[in-house]
Specification:
The protein is about 40% helix and about 20% strand. It contains seven helices and eight strands, in the order βαβαβαβαβαβαβαβ. The strands form two sheets. A six-stranded parallel β-sheet has the order 4-3-1-5-6-7.
Length: about 180
């Protein structure tokens, strides 16, 4: 599993939350990490999870929870500019390519992203996924439909599966001090 937390969190917050929960305060929106992980795992054994996102504020209990459910996140320093997303993408893409290099027996890769950055110049998740699919690997993409690059979505449908996170909104998000996440 390759999890771009910034992409998943902010796409949900910016594109889906305002429609699903009008009137709620934006700062109360949260991702229910364990339900999202369970959605992706779907009862299967998971070989590895690569999680990338900004270093959380001190005392952030959600990151402790992620570690308690078996994820060792690869955290990046919080950017002072808006450049963190590219760095996160590059870290995940490097880990993706190393996985395939070190494990020549094809398997399934789950990408939690929606990012189509770099598509026009042979870079980014989609360009790397295409290279890897040629070696027989299957792909699953879990993304917010409203923020997923169309070519990434089409690729996932042709080379594995695409899961629209909007269908699981009430299971994989909650409102701090308000609505709880429903079980999957």
């Amino acid at each position: 599993i390759f999890w771009d937390n910034s992409n998943i969190h902010y796409a949900g917050l910016d594109h889906v939350f305002p429609i699903k929960e009008p009137g709620e305060k934006k700062e109360l929106y949260r991702t229910h990490f364990s339900n999202l992980l369970d959605l992706v795992a779907d009862g299967r054994d998971i070989d590895d999870i690569f999680f990338a996102g900004s270093v959380p504020p001190k005392g952030d209990s959600l990151w402790k929870h992620i570690q308690s459910i078996g994820i060792t996140p690869s955290l990046l320093p919080r950017s002072l500019t808006e450049g963190e997303a590219d760095t996160t993408d590059h870290v995940l893409q490097l880990a993706l390519l190393r996985l395939v290099w070190d494990n020549p027996e094809p398997n399934t890769i789950a990408l939690l992203t929606g990012d189509g950055a770099g598509i026009n110049n042979g870079q980014g998740f989609l360009a790397d996924a295409k290279r890897i699919a040629e070696k027989g690997w299957n792909f699953e993409v879990y993304s917010w439909e409203s923020a997923c690059h169309g070519l990434l979505k089409d690729f996932a449908k042709e080379n594995g599966k695409y899961v629209k996170l909007e269908d699981y909104y009430e299971n994989i998000t909650f409102i701090k001090g308000g609505r709880r996440a429903k079980p999957l």
